[in-house]
Specification:
Blueprint lengths: L3 H10 L3 E2 L26 H7 L6 E5 L5 E9 L3 E4 L15 E3 L8 E5 L2 E5 L22 E4 L2 E4 L7 E8 L6 E5 L7 E6 L5 E2 L2 E3 L4 E5 L9 E8 L1
Parallel strand pairs: 1-2
Antiparallel strand pairs: 2-3, 3-4, 5-6, 6-7, 8-9, 10-16, 11-15, 12-13, 12-16, 14-15
Length: 231
């Protein structure tokens, strides 16, 4: 015959698991079927049960066929839930969670929404170091620069533009039109002969086309490298 002590032991060692079809004391169903972190002000008995449940409680939400979408466990009060990993060190999926944990089986990093900013911490909420191998950022308004451990975008810096090409001499032409297409008058022009000595013709800079003029035609079969850089 079961005793009060044995019943208490069984109740304390069991894992509490809630799901949308859990039967409530009034014989209705729990009803809530979503990310439990989205419950801010519980308004139904089911939401109150989830919101005020003890740490260690489990909850799973399901699809229309009753299949599990995500299983959650309650880590902190009043309503801090984390998704269980799927067995391959992955995270819970979706778009409406306030926290996402990467590599949960190894207690990896947690991504948090901190007043509209991304906060990356370890599993115990200590700020984590982020190592970036290759970084791509879209829609910048200026170049990046680092200062005091932070990275900023400075729109006052204009991006550097460049052009390089070859001017072929033929013993006849003294004027060459160079279509650099940089779209700016703010540029410098340098020319070098085949021996890498710099040469100094007359240069008329243009928005997209520079005019290079020599006093005498460069010799046939000669070539000159031209480099244009600006902003």
């Amino acid at each position: 015959m079961a005793t009060l002590a044995s019943l208490q032991f069984e109740m304390e060692r069991r894992v509490i698991l809630f799901k949308p079809t859990t039967t409530m004391p009034d014989l209705s169903q729990l009803g809530f079927n979503a990310d439990p972190n989205t419950i801010v002000s519980p308004s139904t008995p089911g939401e109150q049960l989830i919101y005020f449940s003890p740490n260690g409680t489990r909850y799973l939400n399901t699809d229309a066929s009753g299949n599990t979408i995500t299983e959650w466990w309650k880590k902190s009060q009043p309503n801090g839930w984390l998704p269980f990993g799927s067995g391959d060190a992955s995270v819970g999926t979706g778009t409406d969670s306030s926290t996402w944990q990467l590599d949960q089986s190894n207690e990896g990093v947690v991504l948090r929404d901190a007043s509209g900013n991304l906060r990356i911490t370890t599993n115990d909420d200590i700020l984590s170091t982020v190592y970036v191998g290759g970084l791509v950022i879209d829609n910048l308004t200026g170049p990046l620069y680092a200062q005091d451990g932070s990275i900023y975008v400075n729109p006052s810096y204009a991006p550097l533009k460049s052009f390089n090409g070859i001017l072929p001499g033929n013993g006849v032409l003294t004027t060459f039109n160079v279509n650099h297409a940089l779209g700016t008058f703010n540029h410098l022009v340098s020319l070098y002969d085949a021996s890498n000595f710099e040469i100094y013709p007359d240069i008329e800079r243009g928005l997209n086309i520079d005019i290079i003029k020599f006093a005498s035609a460069p010799a046939a079969d000669s070539s000159m490298a031209i480099i244009i850089m600006g902003f």
